[in-house]
Design brief:
The complex is a heterotrimer. Chain A is 72% helix and 0% strand. Chain A has ten helices and no strands. Chain A has one domain. Chain A has helices at 3-25, 37-50, 55-63, 65-85, 90-100, 111-133, 142-159, 162-168, 171-194, 218-250. By secondary structure, chain C is mostly helical. Chain C has a single domain, classed as Helix Hairpins (Orthogonal Bundle). The longest helix of chain C has 32 residues, at 70-101. Classes of the chains: A mainly alpha, B mainly alpha, C mainly alpha.
């Protein structure tokens, strides 16, 4: 199919899609006129049932915990997929990359970039940890905290060299930590089963002031495991992609 | 069943100002999407993508969704451009 | 104003699809896919928005306040992070395509198979 024919088919298709979309749009309530009962119901019941004041995290890790488990495993498998796809032909192609790297002179990182990156590693790590452990009180949670913690590890690469980054996050430790995160989530759900409730129900004692850090039972625990898993998944992905470029860099030292 | 009295805490600022802000951000998001797609060079596209992520995050703030905005900022400005630029470094290394 | 967000969603979908179809570089295609996916976040949050609602966090506001819908925010939040990992998988495929066939042009890759 030539590009011109493809463009024509695209025009026809998008016209049909927009026609149906406009037809569906005519029956919608206006923007801002929210009528759905589920939101109001969750607002009314969530604080009483979970002692958490962050309703979004309560929905994520308690009311719809099973969906979050599925999403976390999408992340897990994507990281495994990246490692699998980029691991196959490493033996053959490394030699080719050495030839291509001879004529290249990669610029060294400037001192300003190195200083600012290294200064920020500590605060970013603490911020990520804070976000991971405060899912039940404020806008935070395992997913965001995990990405911020992975950012802290990547800042080490920006401030130094890839070899330091690799020593800081050896693949085995990152793999094991990611598995602990994913498995921990599943096991918390199984713990609820053993306590006699439904899978992923809240079986730990709820704290007394709603919204405290130790309140809301399993939500904080699940958020911690999710944060660990997300951080390690992104570190693994970054490690795999960085290893693809390391041979080019080695030619410039 | 829990009886609730709906108190009237409103978002700060008059309603027309909040609406104008949302309209502006929606138009900026549409312009940003068009800008990302029409830039053909992937390296510059990665930079424009991170700017698009910031505008999208501000739009999420203006519809009272700070959690989603936080996710979009961390992912859209750090993780995605990093992955894209690492891929481009590998892909372009053989083309020079 | 009442249908502007949904029009913007349709615009972003159209822009993303146009970028995917008329692309000559695999990484450009993947970035257009990212733009296409971002339209779903805008749609989810636009559906859940309430005009007088505040953010659904009750640590500093009284209990009965009307908020926006927290369920769609939970969906959009996990989506954003998970998609970055799936995009990484797509970029790994692009790297492998470049290694095996020497090109990242979708047109050339299509001709190689036939």
């Amino acid at each position: 199919m030539t590009p011109l024919v493809r463009r024509r088919v695209f025009t026809v298709g998008i016209a049909g899609l927009l026609a149906f979309y406009g037809w569906g749009l005519s029956g919608l309530p206006a923007f801002g006129d929210y009528r759905g009962p589920y939101g109001f119901l969750v607002d009314a019941l969530a604080i009483h049932q979970t002692h958490a004041t962050g309703i979004v995290s309560a929905v994520n890790f308690f009311y719809r915990g099973f969906d979050t488990l599925g999403e976390e495993f999408i992340l897990f498998i994507a990281a495994t997929g990246v490692a699998t796809v980029l691991r196959e032909l490493r033996g053959e192609h490394d030699r080719e990359e050495n030839d291509l790297a001879e004529g290249r002179a990669a610029t060294l990182t400037s001192d300003a970039v190195r200083m600012s990156a290294l200064v920020f590693v500590g605060p970013v790590l603490v911020m990520g940890w804070f976000l991971t452990t405060h899912a039940q009180t404020d806008p935070s949670g395992g997913f965001q905290g995990g990405v911020v913690m992975a950012t802290a590890v990547i800042l080490v690469y920006l401030g130094g060299q890839f070899l330091v980054f690799e020593r800081l996050s050896p693949i085995d430790v990152a793999d094991a930590a990611e598995a602990v995160g994913a498995g921990g989530f599943v096991l918390v759900g199984l713990g609820a089963l053993m306590a006699g409730a439904a899978y992923l129900a809240d079986f730990l004692p709820l704290g007394s002031p709603a919204g405290a850090v130790d309140a809301s039972g399993t939500i904080a625990l699940i958020s911690f495991f999710v944060g660990v898993e997300v951080a390690m998944a992104f570190v693994l992905i970054a490690n795999e992609l960085l290893e693809q470029t390391i041979v080019v860099r080695k030619g410039s030292r | 069943m829990i009886l609730l009295v709906h108190t009237a805490v409103r978002p700060p600022g008059p309603t027309w100002a909040v609406n104008a802000l949302q309209v502006t951000l929606l138009v900026l998001v549409a312009a940003g999407a068009a800008a990302v797609v029409t830039m053909r060079d992937p390296v510059r596209q990665a930079v424009i993508l991170s700017l698009y992520g910031v505008v999208l995050a501000v739009l999420f703030f203006s519809v009272q969704a700070p959690d989603v905005a936080l996710s979009e900022i961390t992912v859209g400005t750090v993780a995605l451009p990093l992955l894209i630029l690492l891929t481009l470094a590998k892909v372009r290394g053989g083309q020079d | 104003m009442s249908v502007l967000p949904f029009i913007v969603v349709a615009w972003i979908v159209g822009a993303g699809l146009y970028g995917i179809i008329t692309s000559r570089h695999l990484v450009h295609q993947i970035i257009s896919l990212i733009v296409l996916q971002s339209s779903t976040y805008v749609l989810l949050l636009a559906v859940g928005f309430h005009v007088n609602g505040v953010a659904p966090y009750f640590s500093d506001i009284p209990r009965g306040t009307r908020t926006v819908d927290p369920v769609v925010q939970a969906l959009a939040l996990t989506d954003v992070v998970v998609e970055a990992a799936v995009t990484a998988l797509l970029l790994a495929f692009a790297i492998q395509a470049h290694k095996r066939f020497g090109s990242v042009d979708p047109e050339e890759l299509r001709q190689l198979r036939g």
